[in-house]
Amino acid sequence: MFADNPFAALADFLPPLFMQVYVALMLLAVIAGTLFEVAHKGSAKYFFDNWRKSKGKASKPLGGGELASLAVQTGLVDVLTSGEFCNARRRVAHLLTMYGFVIYVATTAIMVFSPETSGVVPQLWWLGGLMVCLGGYWFWFFIRVDVAAEGGSPFRLMRADLFILSLLASVTLGLAWAFVQARGASGASVLFGLYILATTVLFGSVPWSKFAHMFFKPAAAFEKRVSDANGFRSNLPGPADKPETFGSAREQPRHY
To answer: I want to staple 232 with a disulfide (CB 3.0 to 4.6 A). Which of 54, 205, 244, 252 is the partner?
Structure first.
C-alpha cells in the first residue's frame, strides 16, 4: 500500500489530466494570492522602505562578502533550522510541519504528473504527510499560545488559524483517502472529494491566511541580520517566544 501511487487509481473514474490541471491551478492560486497580499497589505513596500532606511542610517556599511555571509546564515539558521524560535518544542513542531509539507507537496506533484511512479516516492508521500500531522496536531493542541500559556480552548478559532487548519484537513483527508482506497473500502470517493475541497481552501485562501508568510519570513530575517550588523535597529519582528510576548492575550500566532 505505501509503495503504490494513490493518484494512479483515480484513472478508473478521472482522466490523469484532471489532477494535473488541478495542481497547476493550485500553484497559480498561491502565486496570485501572494502577489495580491503584497499589493494589498504593502508588505513589499514596507520591507524595501525599511531596507533603504537601514542602508541610509547604517553606522557600519557592509561589503559584498559580509552580505553573502549574512545570506548564508539566514538560510542555514532562520530558514533550514527555524532558529527564530527560542522554544524548543515550537521549533521541533515547526520543522516537522515545514519539512513534511515540502516532502508531501513535492511527491504529490511527482505522482500526479507521473502516474506510473511507485516505490520510494509514494513512501516519502506518506512520510511527509505523517510529519505534517505530527507537527501540526502537536502545535495545535499543545503548543499554541492560548493552550500552552492560558489554558484556552483549542477549538477557539481566528483568521490566523486558517492556514494550519486547512493544511491539517488537507493532509489528513489525503492520507485517509489513500488508506481507504488501497484497502478497497467504501467511502474513498467521498474522502477524495473532501480532500480536494480542503486542499482548495488551503491554496485558495493565501490572501487571508498565513500561507504567504513563508515567503516573506526569509527576506525579513535577512533584512534584520543586515540591520543588526550595520548598526541600524530594524522595526521588523525578532525571534518568537520572547518572555515578554509569549502568552499575551490573543496575540496572532507568528510561527505559521
So the answer is: 54
